[in-house]
Amino acid sequence: MPVFKDLDELIRYLIAKQEEEFDAIEQEIKRQFAEVENFIRSASPLYSIEELQDCYKYLLDIPKADTSSLKIVTSDNVLKVYCKTNSGRVYHLKFTIPPDADPNTVEITRHKWLIVITVKKKH
């Protein structure tokens, strides 16, 4: 006795198996894209910290930054920076401020594509 009663039943079975395989592949692709998307969302911009005689300068490389979205919060000895780009990408940075820096003297300037955050030293 044959396993399948007719050709139509065999074809339906094979199509169902292919659909299951495609669904599994689709789920794997979605999972991988979600991982990449999470990485992109949580990526930090390039930055450097420069200590000068009277201040600290934090240089942030955020191309196409929307300066109207730039927010800087200082609490205790922590400097937090939030910024969006014109393309909608969001950046979050957190720096520990040195003990001799005055968190009440934060100044923000822009030099070409760089955002420059200056924190003066305590006297």
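the 2nd protein, sequnce then structure:
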Amino acid sequence: MGIIESQNKGVRAYSECARICQERISTHPEQAAAYYLLKIAANRFVDVYDDQPLVSTIADNEFLNFKSYVDQLDASEQEADPTKKLDTLNRIASKIANHKILRSDV
């Protein structure tokens, strides 16, 4: 999350985040599914906003969505029950799949 915040929640920050998630899929195989979901969410942001202006209110809202995914996945890692971990992964996957990223009207 620090990368995204330090780069003002811009497209390049999400691109870097997706790259890091891809690396961690290999280096942290026990969390591969979580990193894969975050990579998908980051890449969707990049795909939508790479070719257009990004309004700060949209950037802030998308950041809060992405942060909620990270926070929930992080909390599930502390969970001892594998069923609860899987439920969290499925819930986040559904949220990412159904999230409508709004394009700027600029």
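DSSP finds five helices and no strands in the chain. The first helix runs from residue 2 to 6.
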